[in-house]
Amino acid sequence: MGNKMESLDKTDQGLDFFEELKHRFLCFKKQKYLEEPEHFQALANAQSPKFMVIACADSRVCPSNILGFQPGEAFMIRNVANLVPPVENGPSETNAALEFAVNTLEVENILVIGHSSCAGIEALVSMRDDVNSSSFVENWVANGKVAKLRTKAAAGHLSFYQQCKHCEKESINHSLLNLLTYPWIEDRERKGLLSIHGGYYDFLNCTFEKWTIDFKRSSIEKEGPKCLVKNRSFWC
């Protein structure tokens, strides 16, 4: 079995895509699973990831690929535009995953990863606020409305592309603040048992920016929510 794997977009010549997936699975089994039997047996009995990752569903943004997460290292949820709704919005797949990761698995880090050229953010920036939409996408990305308003205030004079780029990062910070609306997240952060981070992957030039919310200086008060960050780093 060779290490080189064919891209699925190169196999559309009357071939079955699943044959390529089968090949990849068997490579994984031979090169990873059978090489680390004790590790995978331990994972079969229990998981204890250090990270909870919230990333976009975009096919170009795979956290396990770009950050090298291995099986057992990160509990993940992916949705359109990597958004975290506030607790008052009620149940969703995202906060269900958060509840399990924080309260049961007791992860030590939550990482929200946004990215360049995000179609979900483009939908958010371009949608009209005065129209009730039947679109599932628009109703979901409306969770980032505060980020959109902050973007319009700070970058409304810029081009649509530049507004979207601004909003891509603004929405990450908005999601970081929304995480603190969940009492069990805020409690563990306050006790020093949990850290909340933002990340931004620019796949146009393959760079990654990472930062951590400054819990003591940030605020989720409705009158003036603010997300202050620390430990910002740029990987290129």
UniProtKB/TrEMBL annotation:
It catalyses: hydrogencarbonate + H(+) = CO2 + H2O. Its cofactor is Zn(2+). The keyword Metal-binding applies. It is an enzyme of class 4 (lyase). InterPro entries: Beta_CA_cladeB, Carbonic_anhydrase, Carbonic_anhydrase_CS, Carbonic_anhydrase_sf. One of its GO terms (biological process) is carbon utilization. GO terms for molecular function: carbonate dehydratase activity; zinc ion binding. Its EC number is 4.2.1.1. The keyword Lyase applies. Binds 1 zinc ion per subunit. Zn(2+) binds at residues 56, 58, 115, 118. Keywords: Lyase, Metal-binding, S-nitrosylation, Zinc. Belongs to the beta-class carbonic anhydrase family. Reversible hydration of carbon dioxide. This is Carbonic anhydrase.
